[in-house]
Amino acid sequence: MAILVLGLGNTFMTDDGFGVRAVETLSSRYRFQGEIRLLDGGILGLDLLPRLEEVECLLIIDALEMTSAPGTVFRLEGEDMSRAFASTLSVHQMGVRDLLAVSELMGHLPQEVVVWGVQPECIEMGAELTATVAAAIDPVIAGILGELRRWGIVCDPWLTEHRAPIK
Questions:
Q1: How far is CA 33 from each of CA 21, 36, 84, 125, 152, rounded to the nearest angstrom?
Q2: Phi, psi of 21 (to 5 degrees)
Q3: Cα separation of 46 and 61, whole Å?
Q4: pTM for the complete prediction?
Q5: SS3 content of the chain, % helix, strand, coil (to 5)
Q6: Which pLDDT tens digit goes with each residue over 105-122?
Q7: Contacts of 2 (CB under 8 A, 6+ apart)
Q8: Which of 36, 45, 38 is nearest to 6 (CA)?
Q9: What would you measure as the largest C-alpha separation in the chain, in angstroms?
């Protein structure tokens, strides 16, 4: 089963970089056994389309405008994803909607798509997550590890902090 963990966001816009920071954290803390790729999708939008070919399970991590308290964690799938990407927090979220639609038209939509995200506190110029959103990294990572294990991926912690390359 081919699995793609896709971290989205702009790391120069404070909390908008949440998805990318979460993928970096996964890469530095865990090694994975199975057919899995971790990808820093940044703000690439439709440029990510070739990466979805032959992917059976897609896990997207992103900052989501859900009109909730900052730092609130969300797990979405199915129709709930439409609500998450209906109000665009930034340009890349319009791209996610389009990416999934075009992927479906081309017959490459993964069988299962799950979104893990957090309500941002601040989307302004800055390279660091706010403390409120940074505190959501560990709960989101725990949820993602659960998804990956459910999909048959073995997740082993590195013995020390590791900087594995993100593809």
A1: 21, 8, 30, 37, 9
A2: -65, -35
A3: 16
A4: 0.86
A5: 40, 25, 35
A6: 888 889 999 999 999 999
A7: 35, 36, 37, 54, 55, 56, 57
A8: 38
A9: 43
Query: Residue 159 CA to chain centroid, in angstroms?
Result: 24
Cα separation, 63 vs 29, in Å, equals 21
Residue 56: Cβ within 10 Å count: 13
51-81 pLDDT tens trace: 888 889 999 999 988 899 999 999 999 877 7
Least confident of 1-15, 42-56, 111-125, 142-156: 42-56
Q: Residue 33 is encoded by which pair of tokens?
A: 């056994």
Sequential DSSP letters for 40-83? EEET-GGGGGGGGTT-SEEEEEEE---SS-TT-EEEEETHHHHH
Token pair 């940074």 is found at 134
